[in-house]
């Protein structure tokens, strides 16, 4: 009986091949601030640029992609899941007004298939480049016996920086501020446990072609998460819009109302007008298959809104124009009020944040 690592199911040579295959993609995210290249025990990032800040604060976030990876695995299509990871991690950092600096990733798998790992990391690297984030390190771990040979999961963490007096948040929000919605590209990376149950109950496979979905079901569901960081960093840096954006919200787990409530001050409230947009077809199709209303999934799916921006009413039109110039459809969905009222039927705060109150009103625009 062999007691070697290989006999236990861990192929270190495959891991080395994966690193070689991904190296070029990772290096393309490196500017002069990254030292040491790929393969070290730790990534090095020259933080001397922070000396230009008066009072720099570091922002950090960590996340994964969730059960969306099951669809990528089922279709053996792994080139978009990396963008989902970057979106889930880096787009949380810009919420506080921070510019991302660097990111690391972690891939756990049942078996290292070098080409598959390199494809996943190439997707991460492309999205890092698009958001101005250096991919400075990562880890691929084989877990034989714990995960199936073709199973994997991905996670990541990122760090950004922001001036202390430029941090965005609920404390900047004022009565009369305008709430802007920024369009999503689809489901992004939330609510896939519900998606998978709906499809399983309906007997639909990921490789099935569906006229309702407009193509192969799994390919439609793998539409990558829209990246907001680059556009928002540029808009925040526009001198004419200085101070116009008061808070931002990334619409992820918890849905629409809860994520907006997190970035509003206690005592304030917003009624989000459903009639201002039509949820994307993928949401309508899934709801129809499930025999449920769109409203019933508002706490699970983004329904077409990937981000909120709470902005000064006087500059709302200019902010909208600036974000739309970056290629992201943007529209007004409500106004912040501090007028006394009952909060029955409102979502108040979320994720431990004692924030404002939000509810959705009206009916969605026709699709």
Automatic annotation (TrEMBL):
Catalytic reaction annotation: 2-formamido-N(1)-(5-O-phospho-beta-D-ribosyl)acetamidine + ATP = 5-amino-1-(5-phospho-beta-D-ribosyl)imidazole + ADP + phosphate + H(+)
GO biological process: 'de novo' IMP biosynthetic process; adenine biosynthetic process
Domain PurM-like N-terminal: 53-162
Pathway assigned to this chain's UniProt record: Purine metabolism; IMP biosynthesis via de novo pathway; 5-amino-1-(5-phospho-D-ribosyl)imidazole from N(2)-formyl-N(1)-(5-phospho-D-ribosyl)glycinamide: step 2/2
CDD domains to which the protein is assigned, alphabetical: PurM
Enzyme class: ligase
A cellular component term, taken from the record's GO annotations: cytosol
NCBIfam families according to UniProt: purM (TIGR00878)
Entry's family note: Belongs to the AIR synthase family.
The name this protein goes by in its record: Phosphoribosylformylglycinamidine cyclo-ligase
Species this protein is from: Herbiconiux ginsengi
Lineage: Bacteria, Bacillati, Actinomycetota, Actinomycetes, Micrococcales
